[in-house]
Structure formats: C-alpha cells, structure tokens
Amino acid sequence: MKLSPSDKALLITVFGASFLVLVFFFLGVKQYQGEIAEEFIEIPVITQNLEEPEEETKTPVQQRTRISNRAYNSSELSKALQEEDEIRKAIAQRQQSSVENLNERTNNQLNALQEAREAALEEKKKEVQAAIEAREDARGIKKKSAYRQSTVSYNLVGRTAIALPNPVYTCDAFGKVVINITVNDKGVIVKKAFNKNASTSANGCLIDQAMKYLNRAYFDKGTKATQLGSVTFDFQG
Questions:
Q1: What order do you get walking across the sheet with 152-155 strand by strand?
Q2: Residue 116: is its pLDDT beyond 80?
C-alpha cells in the first residue's frame, strides 16, 4: 500500500508525539520514586480457638422427658403448698381451740368464785341474824313478824326479812317514819328514800336513825331483779 506524503507526515507526527508523551511520563515518575517511603504496619495476629461448641442435639425423646420433668416439678410444688396450707389451718384450729378452752376455764373459775362469794354472804347473813336474835333475846326486846305488832314493820310482797333491827334510838322525838326501799334479787337494799306523806314525823334525827338501821337490813332471795317496798319505823318515845 502506497502512502501519500501527507499520510507519511501524519504518521511521523503521531509517533513523535507519542514518544514525547512517554518520555515526559517516565521523567515525572522517576522524580517521586525517591520521596515515597514504604511503611509497614505490624498487624497483630490474634490466635483464637475458633472451635465452636458442639451444639447438643436433643432428640424428641429428651425434649419430651424434660417437659414431663417440668410438669412433675409443678405438681410437687402444688402438693407442697397444699400441705403447708393444711398445716397452717391445723395450727389456727389448735390456737382457736386453746383460746376457747382458756375462756371456758376462766368462766368456770369466775362462776365458782361467784358461787363461793354468794355462799359466804349467805353464811354471813345467818351469823348476823343469829347474833341479832341473841342480843334481842338478852335485852328482852320483843319483835313481831310481818303479821304481828312491832316497833318496825315492812311491806315487800312475797319476801321475808332476814335481818331487820328494831329501832333503839336516843333522839328526843317520837313518831312514825316510813322509808321507801328497792331490793334486788339477792335481798340487798340498793336504794332507800324518806316517804314524807306516809310518815307522821319529819324529825331529822329519827330519819337518820331509820336510814342507819336499814343499812343492816336484808331480805331473802327473790325472782325479780328489783322490787319496790317500804319499811315503817315506829319510834314510841
């Protein structure tokens, strides 16, 4: 193939330019080769046991066994709680029984003490009555019951006087003094008041003597909690 002079000139120009580019390139690279220093960074090597733990392969039978064990433990816990609850109930019942027994013994002791006191009171009443009767017999003082004449009488339906002293007084006065009384079921006078309308004398000395004698008086037991009545003192002067 024949090249024209113009083609030859173009080829010469291209080759020349390429040569110049290569020359300049190598000259520029050589200039920076001395400036570049190689740096080595030491990277520590970590030796590690990369052995992975063997995963336990659980068979369906083992899984079912563990599940059944959990169910069994829950049952044991429920049974233990039930036994503990029964023990607590038994302790509470025993404590309640002990309290009831203690209350019963206390009530029995109180009842026995009350009965002993009432018996002692009855015995004391009998002794006082005997002493009064002996003294009155020695002095020759006559006393009548509710149905006979006397210097003292009483009005208390269905009740009998156990102790009712005759008036022995030093007052310079005379007359009839009536005292309203309230008697409980044990025969003790719990309340007394001067009855002005039924009395023939309002002398303070006679009234004081009547009140003083009533402090030593008592009656037999009755069925009513309280009962109203009266006592009449005839101070003859």
A1: 152-155, 226-235, 175-184, 189-194
A2: yes
Boundary-marking domain end, from 117, 140, 163: 140
Give Dmax (Cα) for the chain: 198
Model pTM score = 0.39
pLDDT tens digits, residue range 172-182?
Answer: 888 899 999 99
In which domain, by residue range, is 176 found? 143-235
188, 161: one domain: yes
3-state secondary structure string, 19-69?
Answer: HHHHHHHHHHHHHHHCCCCCCCCCCCCCCCCCCCCCCCCCCHHHHHHHHHH
> Of 140, 169, 187, which residue is a domain's last?
140
Domain count, the chain: 2
Distance CA 218, CA 159 (A): 10
C-alpha–C-alpha distance, residues 181 and 153, integer Å: 13
179 close to 230: Cβ distance less than 8 angstroms: yes
d(C-alpha 150, C-alpha 162), whole Å:
16
The helix/strand/coil state of 179 is strand
- From 147, 143, 157, 158, select the one nearest 213 (Cα to Cα): 143
- List C-alpha distances in Å: 83 to 57, 71, 87, 93, 129: 39, 19, 6, 15, 68
CA distance 69 to 75: 10
The pair phi, psi for residue 45, each rounded to 5°, is -95, 115
